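// run 5 | inverse folding | seed 20
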């Protein structure tokens, strides 16, 4: 197994005068600079983004996790221009007061319709498009394509009616986001350190009689107590629920001899974790230990391949086929032997699997951060092992951010 690292650091959350920690001015400048460079390298004249991760990357603003599925906020970045943000009501005024990196007048109140709850015939979308068109013309890019990421259909149709050549802007934003700065890696490391501590708590409470949802509640509270800004989801899967993997949690009671695995997805200052660990409760069978050993072998083989210049198909080939784990196709097995970039989004580049990487590989680059995860069903027909490690790509090879012990199957509260 790759040795775990001591750097980049995971310092305290607060700013202090006696240590160099996250430099948020440098972080903001890096992210906007990356986006501008990606825009300049594209055929686009501007980017219009609705994805809250892209908005945060461009503007360093976020108004709460509730906004993630509302499509209520949007940002325009033109070639040579400063980002213009339209936000929910009074949040725009708040940014004027507390986000001085936004240019004067570039934080504006806006409303499109809250996923259709306010119908398009109110004219909100048409007025927004007219304002956007005016800004495109002001910056001399009205005749160039406009990149859009995840807009609602009424917005796309209205842009097209206004004569705008709409293209895929999400690819440009993901190009920008795939190489992380030292500040981003530090925040990712801090987020992972929080989950390290939660897994210690889980080992203490994971015993017969507790329910999966109770473990989720304990972990969620601890994460928010530690400073998480979003506990996106926690999978808690035990006993006969382990195979096939349901990707959720239930109210199932933990029983003696269960195998149980967890995935903790949360963020600190927007930077996310995806971090599986598997446990045996009280005791472990030979079948459970063997499944864990195979999952560990597969993940170690893939970590050993991580270095700049390697293509993602090489990593995917280190993993078993769908048929090897009893599934009929790679589509059915997608997400079980898996890699995915981490940053402001849970799934960034690179995405690694046998489903997409064998025929469409991409090159691994220094500064990428991604999670690698493996899954192995046990021969008992219902248990399974799941392991995940978060990896930073450096010139010298992989560095591991996830540090809770996982070399061997961890037995909690042994008899």
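// decoded
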């Amino acid at each position: 197994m790759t040795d775990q690292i001591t750097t980049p650091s995971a310092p305290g959350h607060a700013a202090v005068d006696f240590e160099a920690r996250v430099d948020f001015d440098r972080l903001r400048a890096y992210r906007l600079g990356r986006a501008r460079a990606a825009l300049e390298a594209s055929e686009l004249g501007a980017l219009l983004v609705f994805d809250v991760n892209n908005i945060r990357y461009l503007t360093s603003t976020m108004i709460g996790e509730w906004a993630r599925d509302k499509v209520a906020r949007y940002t325009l970045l033109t070639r040579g221009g400063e980002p213009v943000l339209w936000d929910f009501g009074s949040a725009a005024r708040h940014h004027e007061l507390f986000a001085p990196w936004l240019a004067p007048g570039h934080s504006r109140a806006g409303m499109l319709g809250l996923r259709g709850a306010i119908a398009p015939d109110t004219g909100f979308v048409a007025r927004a498009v007219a304002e956007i068109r005016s800004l495109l013309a002001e910056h001399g890019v009205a005749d160039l394509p406009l990149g859009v990421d995840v807009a609602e259909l009424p917005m796309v149709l209205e842009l097209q009616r206004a004569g705008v050549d709409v293209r895929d802007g999400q690819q440009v934003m993901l190009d920008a986001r795939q190489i992380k700065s030292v500040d981003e890696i530090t925040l990712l490391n801090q987020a992972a350190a929080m989950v390290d501590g939660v897994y210690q708590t889980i080992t203490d409470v994971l015993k017969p009689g507790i329910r999966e949802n109770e473990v989720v509640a304990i972990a969620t509270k601890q994460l928010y107590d530690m400073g998480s800004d979003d506990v996106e989801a926690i999978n808690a899967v035990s006993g006969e629920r382990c195979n096939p993997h349901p990707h959720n949690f239930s109210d199932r009671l933990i029983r003696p001899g269960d195998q149980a695995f967890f995935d903790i997805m949360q963020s600190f200052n927007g930077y996310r974790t995806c971090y599986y660990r598997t446990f045996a409760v009280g005791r472990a069978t030979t079948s459970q230990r063997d499944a864990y050993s195979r999952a560990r072998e597969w993940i170690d083989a893939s970590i050993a391949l991580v270095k700049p210049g390697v293509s993602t198909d090489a990593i995917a080939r280190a993993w078993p086929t769908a048929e090897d784990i009893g599934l009929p196709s790679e589509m059915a097995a997608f997400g079980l032997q898996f890699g995915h970039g981490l940053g402001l989004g849970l799934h960034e580049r690179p995405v690694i699997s046998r489903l997409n990487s064998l025929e469409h590989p991409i090159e691994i680059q220094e500064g990428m951060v991604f999670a690698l995860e493996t899954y192995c069903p046990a021969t008992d027909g219902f248990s399974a092992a799941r392991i995940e490690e978060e990896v930073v790509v450096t010139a010298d090879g992989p560095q591991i951010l996830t540090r809770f012990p996982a070399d061997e199957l961890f037995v909690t509260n042994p008899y």
